[in-house]
Amino acid sequence: MAPVSALAKYKLVFLGDQSVGKTSIITRFMYDKFDNTYQCLQIGEVGYERTVMEATIGIDFLSKTMYLEDRTVRLQLWDTAGQERFRSLIPSYIRDSSVAVVVYDVASRQSFLNTSKWIDEVRTERGSDVIIVLVGNKTDLVEKRQVSIEEGEAKSRELNVMFIETSAKAGFNIKLTGLLAQPLFRKIAAALPGMETLSSTKQEEMVDVNLRSTTGNASQSQSQSSGCSC
C-alpha cells in the first residue's frame, strides 16, 4: 500500500479591532451563512460550533480542508477577540502562524488606522516569516463607508502586505462566484509556501471537518459581555 502523504497544515490568525467582522468572515467561509442577530459570550459564541481552547479566553479555533488542484491543505483558523482585555493573549498565537489576516471595517476609520498597530505586532513576533493580508470588511455598508479602496491599496503598498476587500454579509470575496474568482481564502492559499505554481483558474472544493469542544459546555456558563469579537 502506498504511504499516505502528510496533510499540509497552515495556521491563520485573524486580528483586528472589536466588531470589524473577523468571526463573520470565518462563519461565511466555513458555513456560508451570516447571522444578523449574533450574540457573543465572553468565550465562545451562541449558535456557532467551535472549539474553545483550554485557558484561552477570547481566542477560538476552527479548521477547514481545502482541495486545490493536485494538493490538499488544512487551514487552521484562529479567531481572536478585539477587546483590549484580551490583547495580552494574542502574541503567543501569532508566533507560530503562517498567515495573519488583519481586518478593519470600511465604515470605521479608526479600525483602519489601528491596523498599523496590529501589523507591527505581527512583525514583532514573526518578522518576515509570515504572510500578512489586510482585509477591508463590510463593503455592503456603501453609504457609511469611511475608508476608500484606494486608501486600503495605498496602505498595503506602504506596509508591503496583501490587500482585499470583503463583505461577510453579502459573501463578497469570500464565496466563490466563478472559475476565475480570487476571493480571500483562495488568495491566501495561493500565497502559501509551495503554492507558487497553483493555477488561478481551478475552482476549489471545500470540506468541513468535525469540531469537538475541549471545554464541554463552558461557553454556555459565561455571562454575556458588552462587546463582540465578531
Categorize the overall geometry. Answer: globular
Cα(first) to Cα(last) distance is 46 Å
Low-confidence stretches: 38-57, 196-229
Mean pLDDT: 75
Please state the CA-atom Rg, rounded to the nearest Å.
Answer: 17 Å
Q: What is the helical fraction, as a range of percent?
A: 10-25%
* Structural domains: how many: 1
**What is the CATH C-level name?**
Alpha Beta
SSE order, one letter for each helix or strand: EHEEEHEHHEHEHE
Main sheet record? 8 strands, mixed
Number of strands: 8
Number of helices: 6
Secondary structure class reads alpha/beta
Look up the CATH topology: Rossmann fold
Protein name: Ras-related protein RABH1b
Organism: Citrus sinensis
Task: Give the arrangement of secondary structure elements.
Elements: E1 8-16, H1 22-31, E2 51-52, E3 59-68, E4 71-80, H2 90-94, E5 99-105, H3 109-113, H4 115-126, E6 131-137, H5 149-159, E7 162-165, H6 184-191, E8 205-208
Parallel strand pairs: 1-4, 1-5, 5-6, 6-7
Antiparallel strand pairs: 2-3, 3-4, 3-8
